[in-house]
Hints:
Elements (H helix, E strand, L loop, with lengths): L1 E9 L3 H11 L1 E15 L2 E8 L2 E12 L2 E11 L2 H10 L3 E15 L2 E8 L3 E11 L6 H15 L12 H4 L6
Amino acid sequence: MAREIELKIRLDDPDTFRQxxxxxxxxxxxxxxxxxxxxxxxxxxxxxxxSGILVVCRKxxxxxxxxxxxxxxxxxxxxxxxxQAFAGTLGYKQWYRKEKRGEAWRWGEIxxxxxxxxxxxxxxxxxxxxxxxxxxxxVKNAQRALLEALDSLGISHDRLESKTYSQLLGHxxx
Length: 174
């Protein structure tokens, strides 16, 4: 299992943001992610398709001060139809879909994704992924590093988006 430490901000001017980001970070390339969410009696999970690869992810989300700290269980899927049938037999039904398209940047240990999210507009996501075996203070250090990245770009902490994309898209539930 991994822990994902993440924050996001809404971008009013993505071009200016990218100009500031390129001073600090290195462009890794484009991304296109299609996320299908499933919901059942025991909660929800995501099936992501990106670059022809399918990955299932279940997150235990917590949100503190606009920064998500998520425990994630992820695994690959090689047969989409079989997986969907399997999920259905467990009582999970397709809930909603979300599409993300943009550019990924690397800034030391931070992955920054700049792109559009479904009908919501432009966002920048900053994330650090930790292993569960990392030192006890690693989460706080990661949170601090993400906030320092915002500071370095001159972005006020009040720009943090505290709602999840599912909430912003109007989907409630687990």
